[in-house]
Amino acid sequence: MAIVDKSYERVTVNLVVNGKDYTVDVAPFKTLQDVLREDLNLLGTKVGCEDGNCGVCTVLMDNLAVKSCCVLAPQAEGHKITTIEGLEKEDGLHPLQQSFIDYFALQCGYCTPGMILSAKALLMEKPDATEDDIREALHGNMCRCTGYKKIVEAIEAVRDGEYKDSCGEV
Questions:
Q1: Are 21 and 81 part of one and the same domain?
Q2: How many Å apart are CA 57 and CA 49, to the nearest integer?
């Protein structure tokens, strides 16, 4: 039977997630994905391949889409993290969330949080994104249920101004 040495030093990490400050005491090799799910109970960040290939764990770090399974928790300190839970506002769903529902851009829904956050990062950077831009931005997000057509249409609807929240945010 293998003996696992659990005497490693833990580190204190200060995080800003969805606009709230958190302090967690973690192993230095714990991923942001695991901290979000296990320590902060933000279960919208899904677990998939755990090696950066599927994109279901995508979150925003300083408004850039990152795969949280590939980011160590200490690397996230000092960065603004946004999860799918952080998109919904008091007055309702984020435009991308509502568009995904209205355009039937989800089936099982497992990949949806990562898709939405990748789309948000794209539209913040490039509000006039073309269909090719959208498809490229989703390149790292796998969906096994759809052919991506409805997902692209939902994102285009937000891009085209069909959906706006009360702050005009995309």
A1: yes
A2: 9
Query: Is pTM beyond 0.70 here?
Result: yes
Tell whether 99 and 37 lie within a shared domain.
no
Q: What CATH number corresponds to the domain at position 115? A: 1.10.150.120
Distances in Å between the Cα of 56 and the Cα atoms of 24, 61, 110, 146 are: 23, 15, 7, 14
For every residue of 61-75, which 3-state class applies, written as one string?
A: ECCEEEEHHHCEHHH
Give the separation between CA 87 and CA 95, rounded to whole angstroms: 9
Residue 37 DSSP label:
I
Instruction: Count CA atoms closer than 13 A to 101's CA, side-chain side.
Output: 7
- Give per-residue pLDDT as tens, 131-164: 999 999 999 999 988 889 999 999 999 999 998 7
Three-class DSSP category at 60: strand
User: In the numeric block, which tokens belong to residue 104?
Assistant: 């039937």
The structure tokens listed for 80 are 């603004």
